[in-house]
Amino acid sequence: MPDDGSSSRWPLETGENKIVKVLIVEDNDADFVALQNSLFSIVQHDFDVQQVNTLQRAKSLLRHKDYDVVFLDLSLPDGTGLETVSELLKHRPDMNIVVVTGLEGRTLSEEALALGARELLAKATLSPNTVSKSLRRVLRAAK
Questions:
Q1: What is the DSSP string of 27-76?
Q2: What is the pLDDT of residue 91?
Q3: Is the pLDDT of residue 8 over 50?
Q4: What distances in angstroms separate CA 24 from CA 3, 38, 92, one per listed residue?
Q5: Distance from C-alpha of 89 to C-alpha of 116, rounded to nearest angstrom
Q6: What is this structure's pTM?
Q7: Which of 42, 51, 52 is nearest to 19 (CA)?
Q8: All residues at 6 or more sequence positions from 104 whose CB lies less than 8 Å from its CB, including other chains
Q9: What pLDDT does 44 receive?
Q10: pLDDT computed for residue 4 by the predictor
Q11: For the chain, which residues make up each domain, given as ranges?
Q12: Tens-digit pLDDT profile for residues 80-92
């Protein structure tokens, strides 16, 4: 399948049909919509998507609700950089975090993964295909 977003539905191919609970920690509405639309383009799954725009709100939600995956921006009003990953993992060390960032670079990716993030997605490359591949890897690894 092409990676140009031309297809309206992309397979997740995890072998299960279940509702995937997703928390998106993103303060930019356009980036949130792009990520949400990519998620809703994935076939075979339904998504329960919740958005918060601060690290504090994310930590509060994570105290009371379980999510299958958290998509985490590294530039939030109350937290920036890789410390946002560390902060969430302090509360939930087993959390499946996918870092979504406008920053790029091998060093950032390696550092995020070393801290415990499962994947890193560049905002410039967000598409149903890249989100589907990332989510598939995270959910398979979590089994």
A1: S-HHHHHHHHHHHHTEET-EEEEEEESSHHHHHHHHHH---SEEEEESEE
A2: 82
A3: no
A4: 22, 12, 16
A5: 7
A6: 0.86
A7: 42
A8: 122, 124
A9: 67
A10: 39
A11: 17-142
A12: 989 999 999 998 8
For residue 94, how many C-alpha atoms fall within 13 Å in the half-sphere facing its CB? 7
133-137, Cβ contacts within 8 angstroms, sequence gap of 24 or more: 134/98, 135/12, 135/20, 135/39, 135/42, 135/69, 135/98, 136/12, 136/13, 136/14
**Rounded to an integer, what distance in angstroms lies between the CA atom of residue 86 and that of residue 37?**
27
The pair of three-digit structure tokens given for residue 131, joined into one six-digit string: 């989100």
Give the Å distances, CA to CA, from 39 to 5, 36, 77, 86, 114: 12, 5, 24, 25, 26
Cα 121 from Cα 127, distance rounded (Å): 10
CATH topology of domain 17-142: Rossmann fold (3.40.50)
